[in-house]
Amino acid sequence: MTFLKSIKKNSILIAAMYGVMGYFLILQKEKSLDIVLTVLAAGLAAAGFFSIVRYFLLKIDERFKRNDFIIGIVLIAAGAVIYLVKNNISDMTDNIFGVMMIVNGLFCIQDALDAKYVGMSSVGVYILLMLIEIGIGAIIILKPFEIDNSKYILIGGGMLLCAVENILSNIFLAIYRTGYEVKLRKKEKEEERLRKAEEEARNKASEPEPEVEIEEPKLSFEVPEVDNTEDDPEEEKPLE
Fold it and tell me: What is the 3-state secondary structure (H, E, C) of 112-164?
Protein backbone atom coordinates (compact mmCIF):
# COMPACT_ATOMS: atom_id res chain seq x y z
CA MET A 1 0.00 0.00 0.00
CA THR A 2 2.83 2.40 0.81
CA PHE A 3 4.37 1.71 -2.60
CA LEU A 4 1.17 2.65 -4.44
CA LYS A 5 0.74 5.79 -2.35
CA SER A 6 4.31 6.80 -3.16
CA ILE A 7 3.68 6.72 -6.91
CA LYS A 8 3.20 10.24 -8.28
CA LYS A 9 0.12 9.96 -10.48
CA ASN A 10 0.72 13.24 -12.26
CA SER A 11 4.29 12.21 -13.02
CA ILE A 12 3.07 8.98 -14.65
CA LEU A 13 0.53 10.95 -16.67
CA ILE A 14 3.18 13.41 -17.85
CA ALA A 15 5.51 10.54 -18.72
CA ALA A 16 2.77 8.97 -20.85
CA MET A 17 2.24 12.31 -22.59
CA TYR A 18 5.96 12.67 -23.33
CA GLY A 19 6.11 9.11 -24.64
CA VAL A 20 3.16 9.51 -27.02
CA MET A 21 4.55 12.78 -28.38
CA GLY A 22 8.00 11.27 -28.86
CA TYR A 23 6.53 8.27 -30.66
CA PHE A 24 4.59 10.39 -33.17
CA LEU A 25 7.46 12.83 -33.71
CA ILE A 26 9.88 10.04 -34.62
CA LEU A 27 7.52 8.11 -36.87
CA GLN A 28 5.51 10.82 -38.60
CA LYS A 29 7.83 13.81 -38.19
CA GLU A 30 6.27 17.06 -39.44
CA LYS A 31 2.90 15.45 -40.13
CA SER A 32 2.53 14.68 -36.43
CA LEU A 33 2.63 18.28 -35.18
CA ASP A 34 -1.15 18.62 -34.99
CA ILE A 35 -1.46 15.29 -33.12
CA VAL A 36 1.41 16.12 -30.80
CA LEU A 37 0.00 19.52 -29.85
CA THR A 38 -3.40 17.93 -29.24
CA VAL A 39 -1.78 15.33 -26.97
CA LEU A 40 0.10 18.10 -25.16
CA ALA A 41 -3.09 20.11 -24.62
CA ALA A 42 -5.01 17.03 -23.40
CA GLY A 43 -2.15 15.98 -21.11
CA LEU A 44 -1.93 19.41 -19.48
CA ALA A 45 -5.69 19.54 -18.99
CA ALA A 46 -5.74 16.04 -17.49
CA ALA A 47 -2.87 16.88 -15.13
CA GLY A 48 -4.73 20.01 -14.05
CA PHE A 49 -7.92 18.05 -13.44
CA PHE A 50 -6.15 15.50 -11.23
CA SER A 51 -4.43 18.31 -9.36
CA ILE A 52 -7.80 19.89 -8.53
CA VAL A 53 -9.26 16.53 -7.47
CA ARG A 54 -6.27 15.92 -5.21
CA TYR A 55 -6.81 19.33 -3.62
CA PHE A 56 -10.34 18.41 -2.54
CA LEU A 57 -9.18 15.03 -1.22
CA LEU A 58 -6.64 16.61 1.10
CA LYS A 59 -7.38 17.35 4.74
CA ILE A 60 -8.09 20.97 5.48
CA ASP A 61 -4.84 21.52 7.40
CA GLU A 62 -2.84 20.18 4.44
CA ARG A 63 -4.58 22.43 1.91
CA PHE A 64 -3.01 25.51 3.46
CA LYS A 65 0.45 24.14 2.66
CA ARG A 66 -0.23 23.32 -1.03
CA ASN A 67 -1.39 25.10 -4.17
CA ASP A 68 -2.89 22.15 -6.03
CA PHE A 69 -6.10 23.96 -6.89
CA ILE A 70 -4.55 27.00 -8.55
CA ILE A 71 -1.91 24.83 -10.24
CA GLY A 72 -4.70 22.70 -11.67
CA ILE A 73 -6.50 25.77 -13.00
CA VAL A 74 -3.30 27.04 -14.67
CA LEU A 75 -2.61 23.66 -16.30
CA ILE A 76 -6.15 23.38 -17.65
CA ALA A 77 -5.95 26.95 -18.99
CA ALA A 78 -2.59 26.25 -20.64
CA GLY A 79 -3.97 23.11 -22.27
CA ALA A 80 -6.98 25.01 -23.58
CA VAL A 81 -4.80 27.80 -25.01
CA ILE A 82 -2.47 25.36 -26.77
CA TYR A 83 -5.40 23.49 -28.28
CA LEU A 84 -7.10 26.67 -29.52
CA VAL A 85 -3.98 28.20 -31.11
CA LYS A 86 -2.20 25.03 -32.21
CA ASN A 87 -2.61 25.97 -35.89
CA ASN A 88 -0.89 29.33 -35.30
CA ILE A 89 2.10 28.25 -33.25
CA SER A 90 3.77 25.82 -35.65
CA ASP A 91 6.83 28.07 -35.75
CA MET A 92 7.11 27.94 -31.96
CA THR A 93 6.80 24.20 -31.50
CA ASP A 94 10.55 23.68 -31.40
CA ASN A 95 10.90 26.15 -28.54
CA ILE A 96 7.93 24.58 -26.71
CA PHE A 97 9.48 21.12 -26.89
CA GLY A 98 12.89 22.48 -25.88
CA VAL A 99 11.44 24.21 -22.80
CA MET A 100 9.52 21.06 -21.85
CA MET A 101 12.74 19.00 -21.89
CA ILE A 102 14.66 21.61 -19.89
CA VAL A 103 11.89 21.74 -17.26
CA ASN A 104 11.84 17.95 -17.06
CA GLY A 105 15.61 17.96 -16.62
CA LEU A 106 15.31 20.44 -13.75
CA PHE A 107 12.82 18.13 -12.04
CA CYS A 108 15.68 15.60 -11.89
CA ILE A 109 17.25 17.81 -9.23
CA GLN A 110 14.19 17.39 -7.00
CA ASP A 111 14.15 13.64 -7.64
CA ALA A 112 17.84 13.46 -6.75
CA LEU A 113 17.24 15.29 -3.45
CA ASP A 114 14.27 13.05 -2.65
CA ALA A 115 16.28 9.93 -3.51
CA LYS A 116 19.15 11.04 -1.28
CA TYR A 117 16.76 11.73 1.59
CA VAL A 118 15.17 8.27 1.48
CA GLY A 119 18.49 6.46 1.47
CA MET A 120 19.76 6.16 -2.11
CA SER A 121 23.55 6.15 -1.82
CA SER A 122 24.37 7.63 -5.24
CA VAL A 123 22.38 10.13 -7.30
CA GLY A 124 24.88 10.50 -10.12
CA VAL A 125 22.43 9.01 -12.64
CA TYR A 126 19.98 11.80 -11.92
CA ILE A 127 22.65 14.43 -12.52
CA LEU A 128 23.66 12.77 -15.79
CA LEU A 129 20.07 12.58 -17.04
CA MET A 130 19.51 16.19 -16.05
CA LEU A 131 22.50 17.34 -18.09
CA ILE A 132 21.43 15.27 -21.12
CA GLU A 133 17.83 16.54 -21.08
CA ILE A 134 18.83 20.16 -20.55
CA GLY A 135 21.45 19.82 -23.27
CA ILE A 136 18.96 18.45 -25.81
CA GLY A 137 16.46 21.15 -24.91
CA ALA A 138 19.08 23.88 -25.32
CA ILE A 139 20.13 22.51 -28.73
CA ILE A 140 16.52 22.50 -29.93
CA ILE A 141 15.93 26.09 -28.79
CA LEU A 142 19.27 27.67 -29.74
CA LYS A 143 19.92 25.65 -32.94
CA PRO A 144 23.70 26.11 -32.82
CA PHE A 145 23.97 24.06 -36.02
CA GLU A 146 21.66 22.91 -38.79
CA ILE A 147 19.35 20.18 -37.51
CA ASP A 148 16.30 20.66 -39.73
CA ASN A 149 16.56 17.27 -41.37
CA SER A 150 16.74 15.34 -38.13
CA LYS A 151 15.16 17.69 -35.57
CA TYR A 152 12.03 15.57 -35.24
CA ILE A 153 14.09 12.51 -34.41
CA LEU A 154 16.08 14.58 -31.91
CA ILE A 155 12.96 16.03 -30.31
CA GLY A 156 11.15 12.69 -30.34
CA GLY A 157 14.16 10.92 -28.83
CA GLY A 158 14.41 13.58 -26.12
CA MET A 159 10.73 13.18 -25.32
CA LEU A 160 11.05 9.40 -25.06
CA LEU A 161 14.07 9.82 -22.79
CA CYS A 162 12.06 12.14 -20.52
CA ALA A 163 9.20 9.61 -20.44
CA VAL A 164 11.44 6.68 -19.51
CA GLU A 165 13.30 8.75 -16.92
CA ASN A 166 10.05 9.87 -15.29
CA ILE A 167 8.65 6.35 -15.03
CA LEU A 168 11.84 4.72 -13.73
CA SER A 169 12.52 7.55 -11.29
CA ASN A 170 8.98 7.30 -9.99
CA ILE A 171 9.27 3.56 -9.43
CA PHE A 172 12.70 3.73 -7.75
CA LEU A 173 11.64 6.59 -5.49
CA ALA A 174 8.51 4.66 -4.47
CA ILE A 175 10.61 1.57 -3.65
CA TYR A 176 13.15 3.52 -1.61
CA ARG A 177 10.45 5.50 0.14
CA THR A 178 8.66 2.28 1.10
CA GLY A 179 11.86 0.88 2.62
CA TYR A 180 12.55 4.19 4.34
CA GLU A 181 9.10 4.28 5.95
CA VAL A 182 9.45 0.66 7.11
CA LYS A 183 12.73 1.54 8.84
CA LEU A 184 11.16 4.68 10.28
CA ARG A 185 8.23 2.73 11.75
CA LYS A 186 10.62 0.17 13.29
CA LYS A 187 12.64 2.99 14.80
CA GLU A 188 9.51 4.64 16.20
CA LYS A 189 8.34 1.35 17.74
CA GLU A 190 11.75 0.79 19.32
CA GLU A 191 11.79 4.33 20.70
CA GLU A 192 8.26 3.83 22.06
CA ARG A 193 9.30 0.57 23.71
CA LEU A 194 12.34 2.23 25.32
CA ARG A 195 10.22 5.17 26.45
CA LYS A 196 7.70 2.87 28.12
CA ALA A 197 10.51 0.92 29.78
CA GLU A 198 12.01 4.16 31.14
CA GLU A 199 8.62 5.29 32.43
CA GLU A 200 8.08 1.99 34.19
CA ALA A 201 11.53 2.23 35.75
CA ARG A 202 10.84 5.79 36.95
CA ASN A 203 7.47 4.77 38.35
CA LYS A 204 9.02 1.92 40.26
CA ALA A 205 11.74 4.19 41.62
CA SER A 206 9.18 6.76 42.80
CA GLU A 207 7.03 4.22 44.64
CA PRO A 208 7.59 4.30 48.49
CA GLU A 209 9.26 1.25 49.88
CA PRO A 210 6.98 -0.91 52.03
CA GLU A 211 7.49 -0.42 55.76
CA VAL A 212 9.08 -3.39 57.47
CA GLU A 213 7.78 -3.99 60.96
CA ILE A 214 10.61 -4.71 63.37
CA GLU A 215 9.51 -6.79 66.33
CA GLU A 216 10.95 -5.46 69.54
CA PRO A 217 12.36 -8.12 71.84
CA LYS A 218 10.07 -8.84 74.78
CA LEU A 219 11.65 -8.54 78.17
CA SER A 220 10.66 -11.30 80.54
CA PHE A 221 10.26 -10.26 84.15
CA GLU A 222 9.18 -13.63 85.49
CA VAL A 223 11.16 -14.72 88.57
CA PRO A 224 12.11 -18.33 88.41
CA GLU A 225 10.73 -20.38 91.25
CA VAL A 226 13.36 -21.33 93.84
CA ASP A 227 13.08 -24.72 95.43
CA ASN A 228 13.29 -23.83 99.15
CA THR A 229 12.53 -27.28 100.36
CA GLU A 230 15.08 -28.23 103.04
CA ASP A 231 15.70 -31.58 104.49
CA ASP A 232 13.50 -32.12 107.44
CA PRO A 233 15.81 -32.79 110.41
CA GLU A 234 13.14 -34.68 112.07
CA GLU A 235 12.79 -36.98 109.17
CA GLU A 236 12.60 -40.43 110.37
CA LYS A 237 15.81 -42.22 110.19
CA PRO A 238 15.70 -45.56 108.73
CA LEU A 239 15.46 -48.35 111.23
CA GLU A 240 18.68 -49.94 112.01
Answer: HHHHHHCCCCCCHHHHHHHHHHHHHHHHHHHCCCCCCCCHHHHHHHHHHHHHH
